[in-house]
Amino acid sequence: MSDIRQPAVAGSFYPASKRELADVVKSLLASTEATRTPGTIVAAMAPHAGYVFSGDTAAKVWAALDAENAETFVLVGNSHAFSLDKGAVWTSGAFATPLGDVLIDEELASMLLENGDIFESAASPHIREHSLEVQLPFIQAVAPRAKITPVLLSSSFSFQKSLEVGRALAKAVKKHTRKTIIIASSDMSHFPSDAVAREWDSRILEAIGRFDCKMVDEVERNARKSHEDGLEVGLCGKEAVVAVMTAAKELGAETAAVLHYANSSDASRDKSRVVGYGAALFLKSSKNKKSEEDSSAVGISAKNQKILLKIARSAITSKLFAKNPGVPSALDTELLRPAAVFVTLTSSGGALRGCIGATREFAALHKAVREMAIAAAFEDSRFAPVTAVELNDIKIEISVLSKLRRVASADDIKTGIDGVSVRRGAKTGIFLPQVWEHFARKEDFLDELCYQKAGLPPKAWKDSSTELYVFTVTKFKE
């Protein structure tokens, strides 16, 4: 095996000039805000197209990794040109870019090769492959002393084999003494229209956000089978993504955070045939902080609050007039993460006109808002469906719920602040924090919650067999 792999796509996917490349990477990183993560980054997914198309999305990942002080990055991608039986590992020397050489972590590569059923030393698949190479200039910018372990998989790998690769990766990383982060290099949909790409990519990112490998595999296979509007593939490095997600879980990651989404039309303006790009982190959080974070308010920017309110109104309008509401063109971290949402409709006089939601994170935020807006307008059994005549007079309020946290007794419920859910057997009921304005006493609030919402005796909240949960909301309205 040649010790130094030379750049294959310098001058096409990114600048061949050392100075120009350094300036481009610096600019991409400077133009994005580093994500504040609720824990330690164990792994990530970054796109691998030309920087003009996916550089902004990739920079979201590498800006977040800047503070992690990683010593080794395991770069995992799919070979675009080779059908492989095993993971192909480049084991020695370095990968070169116009910025210099990135050394191979030969110790970790050797550890991977101990599992000969899963990995083998192979140079040929790496020589012309771009998917790992495009990550290197970012590594040289944020962690210039870090080493890499390059691994290529194949689209011919079964789902089960991808899981086995992930477990083998984790086993080697656990034994390694250097701080190591694993990167899945993958683009998303190829080559449907912009609208179809955003719809399918949103579904796959939702599965990634749920940290659900099986769901990722199923949604991607459904995308591929659909052939919708020229769609050839939903996640071009699916096997790498599934393997890295599996490894991340084995290494203690508990949550996934989708950072950003874009597609090639954002740069080219050609919406007829696009490629999608997603960025995500896989995180190991502090157990001690988890319960506090569960009931903390969900942060949503003013910009995204406006987008979500537009999505809600568009969903109702589209349902009324039998139109397709589509997927919003701007999908960033907040819009893509799984969320529990309530949508409340009021008439111009302030009277309730519909309110429906979910207490569990059942879909990406933008999709949850769309579905709950339609449900509030047309499926609340207390009211007739919204009509076109009254649509302009209706005001929309969205409440995004924190995770529910069980409390020992009503003493732990904060009056005027906490939303509350009660459960006993199959009976359940919920009051949003906004409902406190109708009650002067906690006892009255809980009595009404049990009786009106859960169909329980008013004082059921005092019974030890009744479970009490609290949460907070981030609310915003038109």
Features of the shown structure:
alpha+beta; Protocatechuate 4,5-dioxygenase, Chain B; Dna Ligase, domain 1; five-stranded antiparallel β-sheet; Glycoprotein, Type 4 Pilin; 15 helices
Largest sheet, in brief, is: 9 strands, mixed
Under CATH, the topology of the largest domain can be stated as Protocatechuate 4,5-dioxygenase, Chain B
Which structural category do the helix and sheet elements fall into?
A: alpha+beta
Helix share, percent: 25-40%
Number of helical elements: 15
Q: What is the topology, as strand order, of the major beta sheet?
A: 7-4-8-3-9-2-11-10-12
Q: Work out the count of structural domains.
A: 3
Question: What oligomerization state is this entry in?
Answer: single chain
Uncertain parts:
288-295
Shape: elongated
**In percent, how much strand structure appears in the residues?**
15-25%
CATH superfamily of the largest domain: LigB-like
Ends distance? 63 Å
Radius of gyration: 25 Å
**CATH architectural group of the largest domain:** 3-Layer(aba) Sandwich
Please report the first level of CATH classification, the CATH class of the largest domain.
Answer: Alpha Beta
